[in-house]
Amino acid sequence: MKNLSELTDFYYKVLFVALKQLEKDRKQLQSRIIVVGVLFTLFCLILYSFVFSKMGSSTDIMIFFAFGYFSLGTIIYKMLIKDYTKEFKEKIMHPLIKELDSNLSYESEQYLSQTYFRDSKIFSSPIDRYSGNDLVYGKIDDVHIEFSDIHAEKNHKNSKGKDNWSTVFKGLFIVADFHKHFKGSTVVLPDSAQSTFGDLIGGWLQSKNFSREELVKMDHPEFEKEFVVYATDQIEARYILSHSLMQKLLHFKTRSKHPLHISFIGQSINLAIEYNKDLFEPSVFRSLLDYKIAMQYVQTLHLCIGIIEELKLNQKLWSKQ
Fold first, then answer.
1. What span, in angstroms and rounded, lies between the C-alpha atoms of 204 and 186?
2. DSSP letter, residue 159
3. For residues 267 and 32, what is the distance between their CA atoms, to the nearest angstrom?
4. Strands, E assignment, the chain
5. Which end is more exposed in the chain, N or C (fewer Cβ atoms within 10 Å of the end residue's Cβ)?
6. Contact yes or no for 99/2 (Cβ under 8 A)
7. What is the pLDDT of residue 26?
């Protein structure tokens, strides 16, 4: 696997010709989006003024227009960037992933099966809508790994019976072989209760989470501040979460800089890293030649594959049983 420096060099040196052409396309697209956005906004304002003059103003009409404006605007925006996004993924993301490791495959319009997401037991809420993109999969050092962007949502009915959608998870979901078959399930979640309410109240709230298995207290103060552990088997959970592995998970969380959820199910480790955006979409309003933009793509890819070395999954410390 290539290191960060090698990947960054490849991004700028090998992909530079494609990047320069894409940068021209990006500038043209940016101008097109601004023009279309202004015209679309003017059209909506004129239409609203016409409706207002005929029917008067009401809260329902304002909500209807606002919803229509943002919904239709989103559809138009996605249509405008569709070809640019496809070209970026074909000319930049695909070769970048192959450079990271030749054993990896990339499918820009595919995503992890919902079965993986459900069986991970990381999220207890039911999922009513599931989507994603940018699936990467393959074997590295005899460790099978898959990851993609995922957006999982739950449906709610408001007082008028209309659908409302809330996000259960949006971000990067990773599944990797752990070279050990677990008899039970161990789930590691961000410790929001203890960090918010303190050790006493937070610990009590953790123990009263009836949607989870038994609370497991770990003999690692730093890990306990960041995470809360639930498992079907206390002994197995402590066997899996050795002091060394807890240190590695803390380091991985620091590197990711985002909320991290983990589970050990079957013979796999599952990691869900929360983000508020699609990670491998091309920048539209910032230059593709910007170093910070480049590093977002490179670092995210390296982080995903780096889990194998970070947690030493390729050293087979646990034999499958």
1. 20
2. T
3. 49
4. 104-107, 129-140, 143-157, 163-177, 186-190, 214-216, 227-231, 260-265, 268-274
5. C
6. yes
7. 96
